[in-house]
Amino acid sequence: MSLEPHPARPSVLISAAMSVDGHIDDAAPERLLLSSPEDFDRVDALRAAYDAILVGAGTLRADDPRLEVRDEARRAARVARGLPEHPLKVALVGHGGLAADLRLWQSGGAKLVLAPDAAVAGLRAELGERAEVVGTGAGLDPARVLDALAARGVRRLMVEGGGAIQSLFLTAGLVDEIQLALAPFFVGDAAAPRFAPPVAGAVFPQDAAHRMTLLGAQSLGDLVVLRYAARRADASRVTTADVDRMRLAIELSRECPASETAYSVGAVIVAADGTEIACGFSREGGDDKVHAEESALGKIDLTDPRLRTATIYSTLEPCSVRASRPHPCAELIRAAGIGRVVLAWREPALFVADCQGVELLEQAGATVVEIPALAEEARAVNAHLVSRS
Ligand SMILES: Nc1nc(O)c(N)c(N[C@@H]2O[C@H](COP(=O)(O)O)[C@@H](O)[C@H]2O)n1
């Protein structure tokens, strides 16, 4: 079991052009040109500065892009910097059925297709040598996509579309910057695809209460290019939902069989969409050694892709050393891939002199958030022990 941090996820730029009525294409089969020649050149310069360019299957089929750096001097400059001529070309697809004559396959540079695990074998058979195919777990979790790219050395990712892919990364709070070219015309068709369309059950962290920061506005002929710092979901902030879930964990801690030698702790693991994955409490199920976090983690499928973006709520700081088990809870949490830990109460020096659970988790790359306002409630469940410390 390792506490190594995961390689840093790449920074993410969404680059798009839209009409003044918010469409990124029209409903006709041919590609609608929104950008001007000057703007296409700006995008080419951007491509040359990135390690990878990503599009979804819809864009691949509708626009049939090559995803190349077109300008020869820019390609030469990349090579002089020790980079491949073109950034890695990445397609995010839900299933197979990618035409063999797509221009992407005929163009230069390495290609990577990311798809749910269930589609990988079929895509490998379909694509052969045209592209490497890698699984992203049960679905298309954008955090796992970034982890897969980070593992291939990608530090800067440019997402070119389409709308569903824009929304996928934006609502996950994984976008650093948006560059949006505004084309001076209307599409005027409700059937035409729009920029970052709504996604059922997902919210954009860049809402009216959390406005993005304007980084610049550039006139390019009759277009204007807007640059915004997109708001990443702030994992270190305590939300109302965090408080509700910690209260649930405190309720669970009241279920613990009484003990004079161990704390009563409750834990809940929650997916990014708010779904509860598992919960547990100390000494659950007649095991007088099991910890709350350990019990909850023991109920999950460790291949569940939701774990990467899940939060574990524990009423007490996860333990850093154990006498009765080989792995402390801080280690089990990171081994499960959970990156956000919310706790109510730091462990006092009663059973161990200096619990290092928070430090261990942070060293391993997790975001640890405390809710001091609930510490007293979590502690009160253990009042019979704490009065001794
Ligand atoms: N986080 C947490 N949950 C529980 O349910 C607990 N009982 C504890 N206790 C702490 O875990 C460490 C020792 O574990 P062992 O008794 O050796 O298995 C120590 O830090 C206890 O205070 N923690």
From TrEMBL:
GO MF, one example: diaminohydroxyphosphoribosylaminopyrimidine deaminase activity
Claim: NADP is one of the keywords in the record: yes
Enzyme Commission code: 3.5.4.26
Sequence ranges assigned to domain CMP/dCMP-type deaminase in this UniProt record: 240-354
Pfam families tied to this protein: dCMP_cyt_deam_1 (PF00383), RibD_C (PF01872)
SUPFAM superfamilies (UniProt xref): Cytidine deaminase-like, Dihydrofolate reductase-like
GO biological process: riboflavin biosynthetic process
Family, as annotated: In the C-terminal section; belongs to the HTP reductase family.
Name recorded for this polypeptide: Riboflavin biosynthesis protein RibD
Organism: Streptacidiphilus jiangxiensis
